[in-house]
């Protein structure tokens, strides 16, 4: 997965609480096993409204989504963070994120950032007042820089932070132990009939 150190870009304000995974990517689009191709269906039902933020040209190319509390609630579908990432988002900021959604984000390099409600409100207000305003999410410094220059520190588990900074997904972590796995497999081999002829 792509490493995450720092991203500066357009932030989209989504001034809604309790946004569930079915709103992020509706069920009728969950017919594929690849992680790609979901971005075009992100917030599908809401995008029928011309005034929805993602439909506005000022927010084109946005990399940061700022939402209200309990973002990503509902079913545990991995497709929700896949759709956000495929659309182009690198970070999601909210006062709270559903646990499974949050974990699914970290597995693909999408950074979930939890900030106090007043700080999220400041980000939403500033990016609404000035559509297209830029926000910085800096994982190396563990801070978010608002359009007006305010700095909001955030916390994330050290092991998750290390994985994101280095771009290590679960496969990368497994491959890092390749020699130990090979050694274990060789040590547990036993004599017996060969099955090579069936391979």
Q: Which structural class fits the helix and strand makeup? A: alpha/beta
CATH class: Alpha Beta
Oligomeric status: single chain
Run of helices and strands = EHEHEHEHEEEHHH
What is the mean pLDDT? 91
CATH architecture: Alpha-Beta Barrel
Strand order, largest beta sheet: 4-3-2-1-5-6-7
Enumerate the spans where pLDDT stays under 50 for 5 or more consecutive residues: none
| Total number of helices | 7
DSSP E strands, number:
7
Q: Return the domain count.
A: 1
The name CATH uses for the topology is Aconitase, domain 4
Feature tags:
single chain; 199 residues; alpha/beta; Aconitase, domain 4; 7-stranded mixed beta sheet; 31% helix; 16% strand; globular
What does this structure look like?
31% of the residues lie in helices and 16% in strands. The chain is α/β, with parallel strands linked by helices and 199 residues long. It has one domain (6-187): Aconitase, domain 4 (Alpha-Beta Barrel). A seven-stranded mixed β-sheet has the order 4-3-2-1-5-6-7. The longest helix has 13 residues, at 117-129. It is globular.
In brief, what are we looking at here?
The chain has 199 residues and is of the alpha/beta class. It has helices at 21-24, 79-87, 99-108, 117-129, 158-166, 170-175, 178-187, and strands at 6-14, 64-67, 91-94, 111-114, 134-138, 143-145, 151-153.
